[in-house]
Design brief:
The protein is an alpha+beta fold. It folds into two domains: about 45 residues; about 130 residues, Ctag/Cox11 (Ctag/Cox11 (Pfam 04442), Sandwich). It is about 25% helix and about 35% strand. It is built from three helices and eleven strands. A five-stranded mixed beta sheet has the order 3-1-9-5-7. A four-stranded antiparallel beta sheet has the order 2-4-8-6. The longest helix has about 40 residues. The chain is elongated, with a radius of gyration of 23 Å. The termini are far apart.
Length: about 190
């Protein structure tokens, strides 16, 4: 017969191994979420991530529909307590479908240390997301801001004239995330050795 304490120790070891494996799998899944989310948004057109290739964003034959006027609302925010801020320079635009427009935003580092930020877009109503074409966008890349730096950035876009006529207002929202802030602590700048 085997010792009950030895059996308990072996059962505990198996449990610890399983818990370590589950923890490692959860950690890996967390890192995989960002690329999976990007692929999902590119395929479905949700969250404004459509036609990220500039050559595909301006197909030949796109014409401005001057018979229709749309209202574009620009919204921007950073999470509470973030060391960065973002705001649209003009929160409302009037445009025609097919018209190429530029919307400008102000990024500001509120900290005395460099930050690396990324803006994540969202489009409402969801139906409009598939019709918003970003030719160039500050959201395509990480933005590095020095201590207390203020920078003006832009998104160049148009609304596809195929947008259903019942949609008269489109909201483009950006949430700015400080990539150096993780779990409440500052992490090292990955771009510096």
């Amino acid at each position: 017969m085997t010792d009950p304490r030895a059996q308990a120790r072996e059962a505990n070891r198996r449990l610890v191994r399983r818990l370590v494996l589950v923890t490692a799998a959860m950690f890996g899944f967390g890192f995989a979420l960002v690329p999976l989310y990007d692929v999902f948004c590119e395929i479905t057109g949700l969250n404004g991530k459509v036609d990220l290739d500039p050559a595909a964003a301006l197909p030949a034959g796109v014409r401005v529909d001057t018979a229709r006027t749309l209202r574009m609302e620009l919204v921007a925010q950073a999470p509470a307590g973030a060391a960065v801020s973002i705001r649209p320079l003009r929160p409302k635009l009037t445009l025609h479908p097919g018209e190429l427009r530029v919307a400008r935003f102000e990024l500001r580092n509120l900290a005395d240390r460099p930050v690396i930020v990324r803006a994540v877009p969202s489009v409402a109503p969801g139906l409009a997301a598939a019709h918003l074409r970003k030719v160039q966008c500050f959201c395509f890349d990480e933005q590095r801001l020095g201590p207390r730096e203020r920078r003006e950035v832009a998104v160049v876009f148009y609304i596809d004239p195929e947008l259903p006529a019942e949609v008269r207002t489109v909201s483009l929202s950006y949430t700015l995330f400080d990539l150096r802030q993780r779990a409440g602590r500052v992490v090292a700048d990955p771009g510096r050795g």
